[in-house]
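Memo subject: From amino acid sequence to discrete backbone structure tokens
Action wanted: Derive the backbone structure tokens from the amino acid sequence.
How to read it: Take the token row as a discrete description of the fold.
Attached in line: The record itself begins immediately under this heading.
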Amino acid sequence: MSIFGIGIDVIEVERIERLLEGYGGKFAEKVFTRTEREYCDAQSRPGLHYAARFSAKEAVAKAFGTGIGKDLEWLDMEVRRRSSGAPQLVLSGAGKRFAESQGIVEVLISLTHAKSYAAANAVAMTASL
């Protein structure tokens, strides 16, 4: 496999908590899938988990080199948990079509968070030629 692109992002958890409080469901529904919202809302500190997922989506957009827009929308990316607990990125819609058009076969992600910050990195991989 070869690297198509890498991305990293860090965000203040408080920023996401303010957006969730200020815009409530509208912000969450625009940025996070139903599955992501259910997972985050079930945690003792939802904002921390929302922030990590927000950061992961920003990191993927950087790895793709597209930003968030025509080729990759917020809801085209879903952060899931493998049975091991490791995060997994699942693409759909325009994001999946873009990945396929570029030969991207997998996007590896890593999440981390502390009291005040959440961060993520992403590595978009293509099949070796």
